[in-house]
Design brief:
Structural class: alpha/beta
Helix content: 25-40%
Strand order of the largest sheet: 6-7-5-4-8-9-17-16
Shape: elongated
Distance between the termini: 79 Å
CATH superfamily of the largest domain: Vaccinia Virus protein VP39
Bound molecules: zinc ion
CATH class of the largest domain: Alpha Beta
Order of helices and strands: HHHHEEHEHEHEEEEHEEEEEEEHEE
CATH topology of the largest domain: Rossmann fold
Largest sheet: 8 strands, mixed
């Protein structure tokens, strides 16, 4: 027996199940694609063995892929094995593909980006402007390399963007009526606010907290979601219900369509998969 140099990283795992010689032979005779799929199936063998997968096309990594689900809550656990994206990120990109097929050449503003969908916008859209909100930082200035913007008083001129994207942001915004109005102001005619938000058709909108002249008032027990820029999390201000579309029309005059696409071939399934498209009419 002579010493064989062991490759680093994931390759090393196969040496545990395949004799070295067989592994090297497979590497020589199998095309890269086949090797990739064998490795992928092996890495997810627990899920594949239980039938918790399907093949399809991921609109974020733009390739044939396999989707796997680890838990019953698909919204967070139905992943593309190539880019590890979740359904709502894929849903936003799919709706952009449908409504604005040329989005890569448009001007897109995204407030509070996070996840693989935002990464794709940043990578592929040349006129993509991301922002985060930090209390105490002057809106319109750059902080930690990112523009600071308050959705309720944006510093952009009127008619600045073709598309505004927000992904699970509007449940956290205090004074959401101002934010919807501001989004409409910075959109060009024919442009749209494309967004996701936890939303239920089964109840009316429920406000959990509001800003008053006396300060922040809690109307329900404080609840928080993860926040990409703050470990304390983001306070849930509003649980949106079936009057959301009317609320948007009342405060921004935008007309909203709701896309609810469930298609396992695109890895689109799960809870709260609605994508809202609030369009600014031409000439308005
Ligand atoms: Zn993917």
């Amino acid at each position: 027996m002579h010493e064989v140099e062991r490759p680093e990283g994931s390759q090393q795992r196969y040496s545990k199940v395949l004799p070295m010689g067989l592994r090297d032979m497979l590497r020589q005779v199998l095309p890269g694609d086949v090797r990739y799929w064998l490795r992928t199936i092996y890495n997810h063998r627990n899920l594949v063995g239980r039938g918790r997968f399907n093949l399809g096309y991921c609109v974020i990594c733009e390739r044939q892929t396999m989707f796997v689900w680890e838990g019953v809550y698909l919204r967070d656990h139905y992943r593309c094995v190539r880019c590890w994206s979740i359904p709502r990120w894929r849903a936003v990109i799919q709706v952009l593909n449908l409504c604005y097929p040329g989005w890569r050449d448009l001007s897109i503003f995204e407030s509070s980006p996070g996840g693989m969908g935002s990464e794709q916008l940043k990578r592929e859209c040349v006129r993509y402007v991301p922002s985060h909100f930090w209390p105490g930082i002057e809106p319109g200035t750059v902080f930690r390399g990112v523009r600071c913007e308050d959705l309720t008083r944006l510093t952009f001129p009127d008619d600045s963007f073709d598309v505004v994207v927000t992904q699970d942001v509007f449940e956290h915004v205090l004074r959401p009526e101002r934010a919807f109005s501001e989004v409409a102001r910075v959109l060009r005619s024919g442009g749209s606010h494309v967004f996701t938000v936890p939303f239920s058709r089964d109840h009316r909108t429920f406000v959990r907290a509001e800003m008053t002249p006396a300060g922040l008032q809690y109307l329900a027990r404080p609840e928080y979601h993860g926040n990409p820029i703050n470990d304390e999390g983001a306070l849930v201000v509003t649980e949106w219900g079936d009057d959301l579309v009317d609320f948007i029309r009342r405060h921004s005059h935008l007309d909203t369509e709701i896309y609810n696409i469930h298609d396992r071939r695109l890895g689109l399934d799960g809870e709260y998969l609605d994508v809202f498209v609030s369009r600014k009419r031409n000439g308005s």
